[in-house]
Amino acid sequence: MTYDLCIIGAGVGGGALAHALAPTGKRILLLNRLGSLPREADNWDPKKLFSEGLYKADERWTDDATGETFRPDMFYWLGGNTKVYGSALLRFRPEDFGNLQTLDGLSPAWPITYDDLAPFYDRAERLYHVHGTRGADPFEPPASGPLPHPAIPHDERIDQVAAGLQAQGIRAFELPMGVKYSHEDPGGGAFVLRETFDAMGRAAFDGYPDLLHLKADAETATVTPALDHDNVDLVVADVTRIVTDAAGATVTHVEATVDGEPTTFQADVFALCAGAINTAALLLRSASGAHPDGLANGSGAVGRHLMRHVTSKFYTVDSGTPNPTRFQKTLAVNDFYFGVPGDPEWDGVPLGHVHLMGKHAGWQILQDLGVGAMSPEEADVLAAHSVDWWVQSEDLPLPDNRVTVGSEGELRVRYTETNRLAQEHLMDRLEAALREIGFDRFLRVPMPLEVMNHQCGTCRMGTDPAASVVDPSGRAHEVSNLYLADASVFPSSAATNPTLTIAANALRVAGHLSDQVL
After folding, report:
1. pLDDT attached to residue 189
2. Predicted local distance difference test score (pLDDT) of residue 193
3. Considering the entire predicted model, what is its pTM?
4. 3-state secondary structure 315-363
5. What b/e readout covers 119-153, taking b as 16+ CB neighbours within 10 angstroms?
6. Are the CB atoms for 452 and 101 separated by under 8 Å?
7. CA pseudo-torsion sign 369, 353, 121, 272
């Protein structure tokens, strides 16, 4: 059977494409490496998830700088990495789409603007049941109306921290989150996840699969509704190669493995949405006589400009005040997103974004700090009093930060971090404010290379075929029926989570496909 559209990858981008195009009646094939993540008690077992790596991809990548291998934080189930994400869903700012000077260099402009994405951000927020308060974020971009649902209320201790920061002039705000309060009433009623955590005696949200399917991940928000349409098919398949005609101008089919058997799939149009790393790797593995350096890689940009955000965990402790919070991930800080006003050194220098993580246990903190940092008993006391933050800053799309495929087919990653000093100053600023309200101990943990959950930029969008892989519509410059609609097309990473922007851009690409291609 030949489909009208074959989508490779059922994460945020692929799910949004399928969801938007399903009502057209076009024959759509969705290919994904794995099916649904099992719903079982182990979904909420922190030791199995965070110590044993349950559900993670069973593969090794190579750090090209050191030659050492690592197991990346990658999840290939329906919904991709959103099966374990923390549901923070923020828009990029208008300035993020233009040239933006950072501490370590220029973050380049996109070939589209915030206004081009704004109506699709609206749609994406509705799809993902975003809860929050429009206007609470001091640097929030313009929007056409309120967020779909009210903000998730803070637990008592987080409410105290928010009030304390605000008293220090820090405009802490409710983090926009994609969750359902319940299946029957996504925007109201009791917050079932918080009640469930009470019953369990611990938190199980940020970094966990959601046993209740109340987290708005790509599977529940877009893939499952798309599959309700008879014209949309899903096949669990590991796509290994994209094949073109002899001239290399048009994709004819993809090669894949299904249940251990080689299989081909044909379509009129193909959309690659496998995530920044694997989208680039698949194009490189699809080299041919017409595309000797990899499919759609005449520019040499496929695999280059990898970004993943500069990220740290920041444990902040008030030794005199316990933190019994059940659902901690409700608070964010963007005051220093574009610098520190009035500071001669940091005014106009973007520092980044901060939001709370799910509550960490003592053994998790100890695992981050390493053997011998403190006793398990000390870690438990620290965890009982800590407020746990995730800090992220924009990194730069360096050409030599790249993904390549080794001689044995293995993935190799080279990455040099940028803007680390900006992030350290961001934590300095937050630490100073927290000290004023009683916090007395601070632990900073930079994230290692295997933390790839915000990967982007390996097949950048642009108007110049000599310097980019796809045009502003998402179409590969050199291949007439190949589109990309995941974070690989991002020219820059901004400093907020990429999920909502991936979804919004995929919805924009879907509109182009519906109106002009399919």
Report:
1. 85
2. 85
3. 0.97
4. EEECCCCCCCCCCCCCEEECCCCCCCCCCCCCCCCCCCEEEECCCCCHH
5. ebbbbbbebbbbbbeeebbeebbeeeeebbbebbe
6. no
7. negative
Question: Exposure of 209 by Cβ count < 10 A (0-12 exposed, 13-18 middle, 19+ buried)?
Answer: buried
Rounded Cα gap, residues 186 and 183, in angstroms: 6
**In the chain, which residues have pLDDT < 70?**
none
What's the rounded Cα separation, in Å, for the pair 369 and 356? 19
Are the C-beta atoms of residues 363 and 330 closer than 8 Å to each other?
no
Question: Taking the chain, what is the end-to-end CA distance rounded to the nearest angstrom?
Answer: 17
Closest CA to 108 of 461, 412, 430, 471: 461
3-state secondary structure of 236: strand
Q: What's phi and psi for 52, nearest 5 deg?
A: -95, -15
| pLDDT computed for residue 202 by the predictor | 74
* 214 HSE (CA, 13 A, CB side): 23
Distance separating alpha carbons of residues 418 and 440, to the nearest angstrom: 29
Report how far apart, in Å, the C-alpha atoms of 273 and of each of 67, 75, 333, 425 are: 28, 14, 31, 35
**Which helix (H) or strand (E) is 393 found in, with range?**
strand 386-393
User: How far apart are the C-alpha atoms of 53 and 47, rounded to whole Å?
Assistant: 9
Separation CA 443–CA 378 (nearest Å):
14
pLDDT score, position 481: 98
The continuous run of DSSP H or E covering 413 comes out as strand 411-414
Helix (H) or strand (E) segment spanning residue 158 = helix 156-167
- Interatomic CA distance for residues 447 and 444, integer angstroms: 10
Calculate the dihedral angle through the C-alpha atoms of 236, 241, 246, 252, rounding to the nearest 10 degrees. Answer: 10
pLDDT at 467: 98
For the CA atoms of 262, 268, 271, 277, what is the dihedral angle to 10 degrees?
Answer: 40
Residue 112 tokens, joined: 């589209």
Distance CA 126, CA 117 (A): 14
